[in-house]
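[stage:ingest] chain + small molecule (nicotinamide-adenine-dinucleotide)
[stage:ingest] validated
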Amino acid sequence: LPEQEAFDIEYWVLEEAKLQRLPKPKPLAGRVALVTGGAGGIGRAIADRLMADGACVVLADIDAAALETAETEFAKRHSADVVRGVKLDVTKEAEVAEAFTFAAREFGGLDILVSNAGISSASPVEDTELSMWTRNIDILATGYFLVAREAFRLMKAQKAGGNIVFIASKNGLAASPNASAYCTAKAAEIHLARCLALEGAEAGIRVNTVNPDAVLRGSNIWKGEWREQRAAAYNMKPDELEEHYRKRSMLKLGVYPEDVAEAVWFFASDLSAKSTGNILNVDAGNAQSFTR
Ligand code: NAD
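[stage:predict] done
[stage:export] tokens:
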């Protein structure tokens, strides 16, 4: 539909709904999303947010047990009709292709991809094994490429545009101590998103990036070995780290999975219809990015 016509129709549908005291349609009703790493901390919060606004969501994750738990929880919280789980390793071309075929078969297409599946690692460069370097590049940079490529193929075939959101990291913009492999892979994701925004624009495919700072709850990354390594890099104890991140933010606030989910929701919805190739930092204003 021409832009003005689509706007008019939406406007009158909303006016009509008001008149009839009908509930306002949910902004993502009828949309289908695939969230990689959807059984993990941030991915789960994103899936929850999208479902709350009416989207059907495919959780795509390498962890079969976590997938089963997440699918069961979402079926109870929302409805079994709006959630599916599919096991995939984002580094495996065939598994990625199968996950998208699964989404199209289960829900009739795909409107939104959230590329989020990830790992973390930290070590001084002189101790970084080639295998650790390659693992970061494979899962983060190449994994994001593989899922975005598959989304492009499907979205272009559907001829209805689409939305791709990358969960990168503040570490893809700002260097962080003892995390060169992770930071480099995250920088690659950010630049890949910008290249894809340029390539997708004509087909109505928008590609945006959300960059969280350290997410202080709910993520396996935050619970794991990474937290100890981060603390060591800053010469502090692991339980001092949360306060460190809060203090260094301009707003003196911590970042949580739900905050990242809100930013994703914005890019996935029509509210951001005029945004592509953009980066939204969710970091409570990381003061390290500013010169004072
Ligand atoms: P998490 O470990 O809680 O969740 C990650 C999920 O990805 C897990 O469910 C895991 O099973 C899945 N996964 C890992 N490797 C996979 C693979 N090869 N194929 C498919 N799925 C795979 O971590 P999280 O904190 O929720 O991280 C999500 C994203 O957010 C990552 O890309 C991470 O780099 C990014 N991020 C996290 C933080 C943070 O502080 N937690 C900060 C900035 C960015």
